[in-house]
Every structure is written in structure tokens, then in C-alpha cells.
Amino acid sequence: MIPNPAADSRDHPPTSDPVVRTEHLGRVVKDKVLVEDVTFKVRTGEVLAIVGPSGSGKSSLLRLLNRLDEATSGTLYVEGIDYRQIPPRELRRKLGMVNQRPYLFPGTVEENLQFGPRQRGESLSHESIEQLLVRVGLKGYSSRNVANLSGGEAQRVSVARTLANSPLVLLLDEPTSALDEASKLEVESAIQNVVHDRGLTCVLVTHDTAQAARVAERALLLESGHVVRIGTVSEVLHA
Amino acid sequence: MLKLFFSNQLYLGLAQALVAALAAMVVVLLARKRGIHLERDTLIAMVRGIVQIVAVGSILLLLLRGPRWTSGFLLAGMITAAGATSAGRAKGMPDAFRVSAWSIALGAGSVIALMTWLGVIDTAITSLVPVGSMLIANAMNTNGLALNRFRSDVLAHVGEIETALALGAEAKTSVSPYVQASIEASLIPAIDSIRSLGIVWIPGLMAGMLLSGARPVYAAVYQFVVLAMIFAASGLTSLVSTLLIRDRIFTPAQQLSLQPGR
């Protein structure tokens, strides 16, 4: 089967519940507030940009959505289900995350794309791998060794690797911030292709407001771990 | 040369200890010149070492006159002390003392018990305690190396580990390359000891057996036996400790709790 995250998202019956909803979500570590009282919704097919200055809690919030860190207050619902009722590994598959740095595993591009499905005892066909690579603009790269990829190529493999898990929502943590200008455009174009052309739900963390305006429809502005504004991109960025 | 000045064995021993300690301090001073400060740790370790070995020597003297089962208490005490020493090499690791003590007890303890039962180690206190202590000491070193390597590998690869977790991997899968590397690295000294036996070094036990009148071939073979037991005890300790610590660096929700600066 060819993994089609957007199709998977649409397979779920339409409900009044958004695909992701947080309620007063927060995390405090040793009296330091990383994120506090964050409430927002993401509907199927929507792209939400989380913007804010460095240290405002953007990445901390994304880590709570992927449950790489534990919330110390509030909760998160995925398709209306409290995150604590979803096994962590299943939650992470549903809310697939792409890091700022790609962290590819040693081996070929195909081996990297097979990593997620193999954790569930599944395997993608070579055709499915090729189709995922076409989506991120890396046609014919499946047998390449990841050690020989450029920064932009590696990040696009990282996006494809997350898509191979057929996520409901794609969480992107500053996916272009560690790249040069040319690579940044390549990766952004791959993201636009995946998100807009396929209608995949996405939460994008970025400090680049121009990028947020290009990719997202709605935005959430965080400052010192608190939500300052939430609304359409123009309402939030031009207020 | 020292023998010319000291006829009493006790004084000679103290003088030899002083000279050996001075040699160690010269190294410490050389290191200091290069900005490496080992003074405090070395001094404390040497004072501790001499007090401990003299105390144990005195206890052994008493135990030699006691029943055989008392050696079990002595070995248990050694395992506890080894656990505490080893845990110091795993700063910031959760439950390091308990992991170390259990691993050494399982690794060295099971080899000592099995080999004593099989008759490879004699049940006499004079044999069981020294040989057992060698297994425990080597298991302690291996455990320290394994935990230290695992800790630094995990801290250096947080991104890779969390990427694997974010892709739905089990916690144990996300750190499996670092578990493997830690076990391999920790066993290098034990493997090298066997490999270089007789060529690079003639261990103290063999020298002691020769001095006490054992046949040279038997002393040599028994030294190999001891090193093979050390390898078995160390390998088992390393295997158990890395697996135990692996499960403790993750929360029940499979989040990596061992993080830089946390």
C-alpha cells in the first residue's frame, strides 16, 4: 500500500472535533515555565504556524504534542481522545515530527524511510518509497547512502521518513533554520507540495514570519511560553 | 636497595609503599604542569586504598581462623562497596548504585558461586576471598566503564534517540547501538588481559602461587582460569548493568529522561 497521509486523514469520519486540540497545556521544569496555559485547535487539512522569538517555547510546545516531553498541566486531545489514553508510540506515529536537524540513521535513504514502518512490523514496497521521494523532490534517491546527501536533501529525506509513517498531522520544528538559502527553498517547496497539494494537516514551528505567511493559514504567537495571539496569519503577524 | 636499610618486613613494606606513592605523585605533578588536576582525587584514592587494603588484610587474618561461611559476608561487603565505587562513574544516571550493585552481584556473584560449586575455586577462605575479590574488582571496573560510556554516548546522541522515538521506535530500540557499543568498550581491558597473558604481563596471582611453591605449569594454567572467570564475570556484569540502566533512562511514556543539563 502506498502511504498517503492526506488520504489517511480524510479516511477518518468528519467530526466536530478537530484533529488536535490542546486545553491549558503547560510544562514547568524546576520552577521554569517552558509553556503555560496553551489552548488551540488544529482542524484536518489546516496548516498552523507557531511563531515567536527564540526561547519563547515553540519547540517545547511541539515536543509536548509528540509526547517527547510530558505536560505538567492541561491536556491534549488527538481526534477527541485524551493523549494519555493513546499508547505513546501510536501517538508519535499519528503526530509525526520532523526536527530542526534531520538526524538520519546510517545506511541508505530507503532504509531510513523503512525505519518507522518496521517498528510496527510493516514494510513499504519499493514503489511506495519512490513515490514518497518524488513528493519531496528526491526521485531516484532510494539507494543513495545518506552520508553523501547535502543538508537540504537530508532534511527532505527526514520529511519523507516521517511521511512513511502515514501521520495524521505533520509536526515541523524549524525544518529550514539550519539550512542555507538555496536548501531552505528546496525544503520549503517539498513541504508546500506535501502539505498543500495533499491536504496534510500540519503544525509548523518557525521563527521566520515570512515562511509562516507563505506556508500557513493560521498562526499562533508565543512569547515566554504564553499564547499572545492566535488567528489567521495576517491577524497574528500584522497586528 | 631498600632492603639494605630495613630488615623488619613491616617497615620495608611501608617504605616500599611510600616510594611507589611518590612515583604516583610525580605523575600527578607532571599532569598539573599540563593543567590536568588529579591531585585531590589521586591523594584521596591512595590514602583510601592503603587504609582499605591494610584493614582487609587484618580482617582476613581474623577470618582465616573462622568458619568458611564468613567469606560469603566478606564478598557481599565487597560487592556493595564495588557498587558504590562504580556508581560514582555514572553521575546523573538514575539509580546508579542499585544498578551497579545488582549487576556486580549477578555478574561476579554467579560466576563465583558456579565456579566454587564446580570446584574451580577452592572453598578455603584463603582461596575464595582473594579470587572472588579479583572477579568483583574487575566486574566493578567493567561496570564503571560500561555505564560511563553509555552515559556519554546517550548524551552525545540525544537527537538521534529522540528521532527514533518520534518515528515510533521502542525506547530500547532507540538506544540499542549505544548499549552494544558500551558493552564492547567495557570488555576491551578483559579481552586484552587474556590476549596479552604471559607476553605483556605475568599477573600477581601466578607470581604468588610460584612463590608459595605451586608447580609452574599449574600456576600458569590457573592464571588463565582466573582471567577467563574475570571475563565471564565482567561480561555478565556489563550486560546486566547496561540493560538495567537502559530501562531507567526512559520514563514510563518512553521519554528520554537523561538529557544534557537536566
Secondary structure layout:
The complex is a heterodimer of chains A (239) and B (262).
Chain A: H1 5-11, E1 20-29, E2 32-42, E3 47-51, H2 58-65, E4 73-78, E5 81-82, H3 88-94, E6 95-98, H4 109-119, H5 126-135, H6 151-163, E7 169-173, H7 181-197, E8 201-205, H8 209-215, E9 218-223, E10 226-232, H9 233-237
Parallel strand pairs in A: 3-8, 3-9, 6-7, 7-8
Antiparallel strand pairs in A: 1-2, 1-4, 4-5, 9-10
Chain B: H1 2-5, H2 9-33, H3 39-63, H4 70-87, H5 96-118, H6 125-156, H7 158-166, H8 171-174, H9 176-186, H10 188-195, H11 204-211, H12 216-248
Helix pairs in contact in B: 2-3, 4-5, 4-6, 5-6, 5-12, 6-9, 6-12, 9-12, 10-12, 11-12
| Biggest β-sheet description of chain B | none
Q: Biggest interface: chains and residue counts?
A: A-B, 24 and 18 residues
Q: Work out the number of β strands of chain B.
A: 0
Percent of residues in helices of chain A: 25-40%
- Averaged pLDDT of chain A, please? 89
Mean residue pLDDT of chain B: 88
Number of structural domains of chain A: 1
Domains of chain B, number: 2
Unreliable stretches of chain B: none
What is the number of helical segments of chain A per DSSP (H or I, 4+ residues)? 9
Strand-residue proportion of chain A? 25-35%
Give the ordered list of helices and strands of chain B: HHHHHHHHHHHH
CATH fold-level topology of chain A? Rossmann fold
Overall outline of chain A: globular
The top-level CATH class of chain A is Alpha Beta
The quaternary organization reads as: heterodimer
Q: Radius of gyration of chain A from the CA trace?
A: 17 Å
Cα distance, first to last residue of chain A?
A: 45 Å
Q: Could you give the distance between the termini of chain B?
A: 55 Å
User: What amount of the residues of chain B lies in strands?
Assistant: under 5%
